[in-house]
Amino acid sequence: MTQKDITFVADFLTEHFNEAPELYNRKGKYFNVERVGQYLKDEDDDLVSPPNTEGNQWFNFLKDSTHLKESPLLFPYYPEKSLHFVKRQMEGIIDQCLQKPADVIGKSVHQAVCISLYKVSQSEDSTPQLFKLPFLWNDKTSNLHYVLFTMLENSISKIHILRRHTDTSRSVSNGILAVEFGNFLNNSINESSDSRRYSCLDAHFYDDETVTVVLKESVQQEGKERVLAQLPLS
């Protein structure tokens, strides 16, 4: 070790491990522990070297504020406790706040409809990802929920639109349908139907009546064409 290293260690010991007579009657060691590590101990014991809050602007502000001093909205401060203790206290309060809404919401949710989209062989070790791009939209004018999604594998050229009424007791026509992007961009009817096929890269509702889609050419070649299209729901 160099003399610089020895000096560094000596200074550290001098600063943090001086005898502290005021702590002799306390449980534990009779010296100040390293000031950062004490906050990280997962213990309920008080800190050996609590921070000095004198002159702290936030504490002075609370002390001088009649309304905030006893406000239940402010999380209590524990200057004598470690961060682990404070974390457990906060988790307990958050769990208590969320429990009632979770119970109420959980009891109010029920299955409105079940639609089979695809079947997967049970013998397969890993289920392939067949569901992609789920995008939700709520038409408040007509009280309708929409879900846009695509199915991989054999239907990459299609986008599916699921529509449900917000009132689960009511049904809507064409609850689910698919739009296929085949050769609709062909320049003439003489072009082969397989020469220009498109798959959906992304899809979002532009407004209550229009869907915006990003398409790419499915043919394996360089410079694949990208198309931004807006489709009316009608």
TrEMBL record:
Domain Anaphase-promoting complex subunit 4 C-terminal half WD40: start-end pairs: 136-234
Organism name: Pomatorhinus ruficollis (streak-breasted scimitar babbler)
Highest taxon above the source species: Eukaryota
GN (gene name): Anapc4
Pfam families: WD40_APC4_C-half
The protein's name in its UniProt record: APC4 protein
GO biological process: anaphase-promoting complex-dependent catabolic process; cell division; protein K11-linked ubiquitination
InterPro entries linked to this entry: APC4, APC4_C
Keyword set, alphabetical order: Cell cycle, Cell division, Mitosis, Ubl conjugation pathway
Transmembrane segments: none
One GO CC term, this protein: nuclear periphery
